Amino acid sequence: MSAEYKFEGWVASDNLSVRGQMVWGEFEPKKWEEHDVDIEIICCGVCGSDIHTLASGWEPTLYPCVVGHEIVGKAVRVGKDVKNIKVGDRVGVGAQAGSCLKPSCADCSAGQEAYCNGPESVNTYGSVYPDNKGTSYGGYSTYNRTHNHFVFKIPDALASTDAAPMLCGGVTVYSPLKENGCGPGKRVGVIGIGGLGHFALLFAKALGADEVVGISRKAEKKGDALKLGADRYIATDDDEDWANRNVRTLDLIISTVSSEHMPLEKYLGLLKIKGSYIQVG
């Protein structure tokens, strides 16, 4: 079967592409397999990882490259081995497009596919599939092809533009909140009210935490934090005694920022005995 559509997108050919020097062009997706889903893209979120990849900021990027890993679109072709998706479904793809999925893999069998370190572990863009199956290309394009295991249905009540950033930024904070028991009876602090932090506030409140506390250096983000669900706010630069005022008040802290100037020992002092501190981002 040959698809009646073209895979086209904003193609980066070198690290100058980070300055906007990408070219719209056609690319060859991975070789079709019957566990795959082709997605006609509706929208794709923006992540800092896209910028780093375009610039070869972490390591040399495999050019040509099409970035974008917060993908929402409509399934237009579904392999015969796919059971969870049907043609016409609105679906999403996050930052991962493949792993070994073998029962013998401790990570995949435990639902921790992101930790699989085999050659089958593939990012949504910029990775090479084993066995000459091709290269992965991301969501700043017309279509995406991904293994169905990494394709998720989007609930009807959720707008595509709201769902897209949840597929990377959202899950980055949702996972540690869920894994560490965020919910009734817990008091949760969120350090950094930026792209990740705003999701952490929303999710902590939605999960039913007794108290959600926004924490940032300046008071200027207090209004936003309260609108997003925070019950109170700590501005560490504006209250010299903030650490003493809040000692042992939190069960869980999600930190979305990292700096050598962060007063980590003071943040840890906010935790109750046996509390948890998770660094993300």
Automatic annotation (TrEMBL):
Domain of life: Eukaryota
Residues covered by the Alcohol dehydrogenase-like N-terminal domain: 34-156
Alphabetized Pfam families for the sequence: ADH_N, ADH_zinc_N
Cofactor: Zn(2+)
Gene Ontology MF terms: oxidoreductase activity, acting on the CH-OH group of donors, NAD or NADP as acceptor; zinc ion binding
Keywords: Metal-binding, Oxidoreductase, Zinc
InterPro entries reported for this sequence: ADH-like_C, ADH-like_N, ADH_Zn_CS, CAD-like, GroES-like_sf, NAD(P)-bd_dom_sf
Residues in Alcohol dehydrogenase-like C-terminal domain copies: 195-281
Record-stated family: Belongs to the zinc-containing alcohol dehydrogenase family.
PANTHER family linked to this entry: ALDEHYDE REDUCTASE
Name of this protein: Mannitol dehydrogenase
Species annotation: Talaromyces proteolyticus
